[in-house]
Every structure is written in structure tokens, then in C-alpha cells.
Amino acid sequence: MALAVMIQGTASDVGKSVLVAGLCRIFAQDGLSVAPFKSQNMALNSGITPDGKEMGRAQIFQAEAAGIAPDVRMNPVLLKPTSDCKAQVILMGKVATNMDAVTFHNYKPRLRSQIQEVYRSLAAGHEVMVLEGAGSPAEINLRDRDIVNMGMAELAECPVILVADIDRGGVFAAIYGTIALLAEHEKRRVKGVIINKFRGDKALLYSGVEQIEALTGVPVLGVMPWLKVDLEDEDSVVLERGKYDADTPKDLDIAVIQLPYMSNFTDFNALAAQPDVRLRYVSQAYELQGCDLVILPGSKNTLSDLLWVRKSGFEKALLAHHRKGGAVLGICGGYQMLGEHIFDAVESGLDEMPGIGLLDVVTRFASEKTTTRVAGKTLPALPGFFNACAVLSLEGYEIHMGETQRGAHVEPFVRLSECNAQPYDSLDGAVSADGNALGTYLHGVFDNGEFTRALLNGLRERKGLKAWEGELFDYQQHKHQQFDILASAMREHIDIESIYQIMREHQEQLCI
Questions:
Q1: Which end of the chain is more exposed for a tag (fewer CB within 10 A), N or C?
Q2: C-alpha to C-alpha distance for 427 and 182, rounded to whole angstroms
Q3: Which residues, in sequence order, are CB contacts of 248 under 8 Å at separation 6+?
């Protein structure tokens, strides 16, 4: 039987995903086989497993922290919102249906046995399981059908550690209120508390820690300081809080249009980490002024986001940027928007819409979703400044429901030679004849260091700057360094031995 612990939070965005990644790293460093698990994820950030299954990005980066390949069993249920009240439901990596919130809430009990079976299957192959909850276990209106917080802890028969974010204020009320709203048998499952994102002198916290321990009967296992670690975030709420705001001038200024239904914003983490790049997420059209590259990201509701681009003034601003010779790049839904026309009888409820018109391509949505990991090389004769990126190896993944056809006035971007580890031959993407607009279905394209540096050096050349002469930035190495920084900080500020003891004692009780 695997050791197990579950990280739950007093609210969303308290740091659960990052702390789970840190525990996975610590247990892996200690020589244990460890895997993350989150039964139900709601996020527009997703990725693809080596066998072509779709799962939440959070569990993918947690698997990276654990030193193992992502496995769809780590996230059997993924909800991708398509509107304020509806979401695409993905079960075990494949699209099942679309449901509104009430319908899915009523559907959840039917998933319990499948989730438990999947969890046990994954746990059977590992020595330690680190589970993650969602939101808060004190959402009493949802408790009767819960499958992701205390409901999941019961299915997995594991202890719980509660995480609270002190940076947002009211941390002791959040801890006390959360535990107070739990049923008695649920309270007994909570074995520790972690206070997260603390700034200042810990001495000021001691009396509060003593009082909250006395009030709840639950020990505080540590106080994590606010860490400047560059790790992926589960959803784009961090953009609203300004995490990626960058006011420091850099040689290159790149703007990502922050779409209402933006998906996979973590595509741009590798860009943000480049030493000569200032990356900005922009929500007002005037913010495009002065940027060197505009990026239209992926979208879970392409036509609705395209309509927003049009009504908000971004289309005019983007076309003006392009007329002045500015570069534009679209990924997935952004690629589709840059085309001449989109026909959609699947995703948005809208039938069709003219695109922005920077690429001679037409997209028709299909009911079957493409979910693949791919590899290939950029073509040898890319137009314009994108020629700096010619004949370079690329790896990435595709998640889309549209098929895009190129016209006569664009060139393909990349020839794909591998799909889900199998031989493959297909062309992806489009580059405009003037060489200033590029679209591709490849998520993760900027994780390819040689390609990204070639693109950035092309932008530098257009500005009259010398090519970057520093060492080629290795994003994968960078991520692993960040995991190690996180693990080291957690060992310093959290009683990791107590977490081991909590898991062992709970396992012993189960065996009695």
C-alpha cells in the first residue's frame, strides 16, 4: 500500500499545486517513487501525455517534479469552461460531452467508482501518492457529491494537510472557518496546516499560530515564505493578480492578448524566462503600442474570443501593428483567428465568422478533438524574418477541434515527422507571404530553445540589435532548477519529517 497525503486549501489559488509539486520533488529526491493525483481539475491549461491523452497542466508539471512521465490517471476528470455556466468534460483524456454546472454536479456520483479505481491503479505502481484538492473542502453546498476534496480523501483513505494563503489576509479566520465547517469525521482527517506566501518577520506570527493550534487542535507544520520561483500556474487567475507584470525594460517587448477564454497561457512561460524579453499580457488595445511581437494565444471558445477581439479594438490595433511591419504570431485558436474565415458548428454556438485576415487560411471545426504530441522541423524557406527559424527541430502538442486549410498566399511552417511516438508526415501552420504573420497549432513551441532564440534574434535584428551572445537558454533545465529551489525552501520551512510520520501512522491504522 502506497503512502499518501492530500493537500487541500482554504480557497483557490492558495498554492496547493506548487506545494504538491514541491512534495513530489522532495519524495523523489529521497529515493521514493512518487506520483501526483487530482481527481477533478477545472482549467483551460491542459497538455498531452505521450500516448495522446489530454490532462491538466498542473499534474503534468507535478509529474515533471516527480521525475516521471505524465499519465492521464493523474487527472481522470478535466473540465474546460466554454462559457460562464458550461464546460467540456474530458474523462480519462478524451472528450466525453459538454455539461452545464448543475448537470455535472448531478453526474458526479456516477464517477466515484471510476475515480477510485483509477487512483488505486496509479497508486499500485508507486510508493507515495500526493493528492491535490480543488477550491476548498468547506464548500458545503457541494459536499454531498464531492469527488475532489474530502470525498476524494475518503476514497483514497488518506490524511489531509490544509494550506492557507496569508498574503490575501484573514489567514487565521480562513483556517478556523474551514475546519469548523467540516463534519467531525472530516476534521479527524486533517492532520496539519501550512501557512503559505508569508512576507515579513515570522516572530509576529507565533502567538497567532499557538492560538489557531489551540482552537482547532491541528498543528501548524510550517510557514512558507513568499518564494520567487518560476513555476507553471494552474489557471490564469494569476494574470489578474499581476504575477507576470514586467515593468523592467528589456531589449524585446512581446505582448500576449489576454483573451476571455484564453487557454494554455503557460505556452509563454519559456518566453517570459528569456533574459532579453519583457512579456506582457494585455487586455486593452492601446497596450500593443511599441511591442515587437503580438501573440494571439489559444482559446476554448474561438469565435466568442474573436468577437471580443473585434469589439474591444484589438483587431484594428493588431492590423495597424502589422501594417507598420510588426510581427504577429497565433497559436491554436489564435492561428484560426488570423485566417480569412472560421466555420463553427461545434464549439461556440455561432455558425461562422470572418477572421482577421492576416493569413490565407480557412478553418472548419470538427466534432472530433485532435490531441497529439508531435515533432518535426521547420521548413527551409520561411518568408520574411521568420526565415531565421528555418530548418530547426520542434516538439510540441496539439489540442484543437478545427482543421485549417492553407491557401496560395501562405507557406507551411513545419513538417511533422512524429505523432504520439509514431512515424508521421504532415504539414502544420502557415506563414504569410510578407513574412510578418505566422500561425501554428503547436502548443509548447517556445519550450524549444534553439527555435525561440532564432525567433528572438530575428526580432533583435529588425530593431538593429546584435544577436544575443549569451548561452542558449535551456527551459527544461530551468524548470528543474526551480523545482529544486522549491524543494529546498520547503525542507527549510516545513516539517517534512512530520509529513512522513503522518503518512506512516495513517497507513498503520489502515492496516490494523
A1: C
A2: 54
A3: 278
Q: Is 46 left (phi over 0), alpha (psi -120 to 50) or beta?
A: beta
Whole-number Å distance between alpha carbons of 390 and 45? 29
Give the CATH number of the domain where residue 151 resides: 3.40.50.300
Q: CA-based Rg of the chain, rounded to a whole angstrom?
A: 23
Torsion sign across C-alpha atoms 163, 74, 483, 267: negative
- Please state the separation of Cα 69 from the chain's center in Å: 16
Alpha-carbon distance of 407 to 425, in angstroms, equals: 19
User: Residue 241's pLDDT is what?
Assistant: 47
Examine the domain organization and report whether 497 and 413 are in the same domain: no
Active site residues: 332, 443
Angle of helix 57-66 relative to helix 475-493, nearest 10 degrees? 80
How many domains, in total, are found in the chain?
Answer: 2
Domain assignment present for residue 79? The answer is no
Counting as low any pLDDT under 70, the low residues of the chain are: 233-247, 346-350
183 vs 153: CA distance, rounded Å: 13
133 within 8 A of 147, measured Cβ to Cβ:
no
Pair 175, 137: CB distance under 8 Å: no
Neighbours of 130 (CB within 10 A): 29
CATH at 273: 3.40.50.880
**DSSP assigned state of 68:** S
Say yes or no: 120 and 202 in one domain.
yes
Quote the CA–CA distance of 354 and 261 in Å, as a whole number.
Answer: 19
Whether residues 354 and 313 fall in one domain: yes
Q: Are residues 305 and 374 in the same domain?
A: yes
pTM score: 0.90
Provide the pairing of β-strand 393-406 with 327-331. Answer: unpaired
Predicted pLDDT of residue 234? 62
Instruction: Quote the pLDDT of residue 243.
Output: 53
Q: Computed from CA positions of residues 298, 302, 305, 310, in that sequence, does the dihedral angle turn out positive or negative? A: positive
Element (H, E) at 83: none
Q: Which element (helix H / strand E) includes 50?
A: none
